[in-house]
Amino acid sequence: MDRGIGRSVRLFRAFLVEQTEPEVFYGALARDSCELLGELTTLDGARVLDVGAGPVEFAHAFRAAGATYVPIDHDSAVPSVRDGGVVATAEALPFADGSVDVVFSSNLWEHVRRPEHAADEMVRVVRPGGLVFLSYTNWLSPWGGHETSPWHWLGGERAARRYTRKQGHPPKNTVDRTLFRVSVAQGLRWAQQHPDVEVLVARPRYLPDAARHVLRVPGLREIVTWNLLLILRRR
User: Has this prediction a pTM greater than 0.90?
Assistant: First the structure.
């Protein structure tokens, strides 16, 4: 399926109400994610592990597709974990080697101190022939500072201070504590060098498929990509 500008417009419109109507954005993103995975594997009957789960919309979408959906997060209070999930960290997944068909991780990488180690864990638990769906927001993207964006371009600490002055409370995401300065190059390097995976998809997640070519341009890709999508097959 060729994902064009119409899809991108729909996702960005949904993104505009993420803070006020999160179910709209995460519902659209969950459906889009299932459609993309459905082009590469059969979700019906698959065991899907969602690493860094949060919004319950992903649980609804995967279960509607027939998957056995297992959410995992370090926070027991997140909605998807309250609904039959597992409390653990991404850097030490409590699952056996090769025990799941699909590992899904959406916007977790920028929130873990050792992202490559967490990604290694995802590869470990997926079976040979299974898929790892890894997507994250890189630091230099327009949304890299999350709620402090785009002021993070002037420095993460400065952006946090500005947010605190304006909002009367500190941001949820604290730079170098719960939000880390990951790059597009970092994810591509990890995927291309990992001996146990084949890269099936590498492109900006929200942009049209043709935008994948921007990943060839160092520097520019860090600004334009916005959110890197990698889909890998375990060898």
Answer: yes
